[in-house]
Prior knowledge:
alpha/beta, Rossmann fold, 2 domains, 9-stranded mixed β-sheet, 15 helices
Amino acid sequence: MMQFTETPPQLLHQITSFSNLTMNKNQIHRTRPWPGFPSSMSLGNFGDANCMEQLLVHCANAIESSDATLAQQILWVLNNIAPPDGDSNQRLTCAFLRALITRAAKSGTCKMLAAMENNNAHYNPSIDSHKFSVIELASFVDLTPWHRFGFTAANAAILEAVDGYSVIHIVDLSLTHCMQIPTLIDAIASRFEVLPRLKLTVVGSTEEVPPKLDLSYNELGLKLINFAGSRNIIMEFKEIHSSYADGFSSLIEHIRMQHFVGEALVVNCHMMLHYIPDETLSPIPNTTSNPYFVESSSTPSLRMMFLKALRSLNPTIVVLVDEDADFTSNNLVCRLRSAFNYLWISYDTVDTFLPRGSKQRQWYEADICWKIENVVAHEGLQRVERLELKSHWVQRMRNAGFRGISFGEEAVSEVKTMLDEHAAGWGLKKEEDDLVLTWKGHNAVFATAWVPA
């Protein structure tokens, strides 16, 4: 797509005309307060997804160039064509609208938008305000194949890799707070004649990214130990306080000290590694043990440092599951476009399985809104949603000294069986050694498996 650096006269005329028409109408018939309420007037061609994306791009450019007047005009149009309770494209656009308002208010270049941002904060119920119980989170994760795809593919690869080991050490770097582990324990208990001893290490990070749990990891660990015991498996649980901001350095050191000869080391990375800073953030030493970062592209990232340190541990298998999109650009418009053309999938799928007004739908869409706001409204260390394409991760893993291994037919069969439980739009394809979850033919989530080269 072409990136506009200024607003075409025809579009500007349309925006101005629509804004004036809406304002004139307000003199006769008062509309509801900003933000996010639909107008009853005919909107012509403004409502299609391509036009919405174009308006968002022009709005972002106006905000970045401190053109508050144009930004307000476009925001007003977006506000009227993208209600929060509209169709999937309208709800997607509404989320980007709120993120742009937040960015404008934070930047200080459009201070007149601060009042809108305050209304915006009260208007959108955030997933930050809800902490899931274990049962709620398990149900939340099961709503779509978004996470279940990775669980299923990873478990199949792990089971094949650890067969015959008497001790299995699982390092779970997962966004979903160990929701994958009970299914893995079940599979081990039913598949292996001689049950191994399990060691589970998780990261109790200081950063809080949704979804959040309403109990501590100590409590979660006790539940998992009891569950494993019910399957006649002895399990140890260890929480390590480590941060993605420093490349999980303390986690690496803990594994190095605790990994013993003869035990399988499984590193399960489920939608977590993209929070480690990439090449656009470079560490600069200071007097403390924690690095800080500046925007740069000249220094190797903690992301690569983590993968190389992981390779030095000689793991039995590393499974990497993540979302197949690129949010790494330092250019706001590039990130906005990439996110808009990827996250429509999440909004499109929600209409197939959750009714409007349900709590789960509110949590589900608030989770996406959090991601959109992080991608659009934040910079530097605050912008943690730095997704990379599968092809980039494949190259990173190879550069770090890993080689990919293929998922077997059993894994493919289990994923297909799982997908049969969900809407017809979900699909599965193989790309060389890797598996990719698709929605209506578009890549959504990838799963890869790796061993030391």
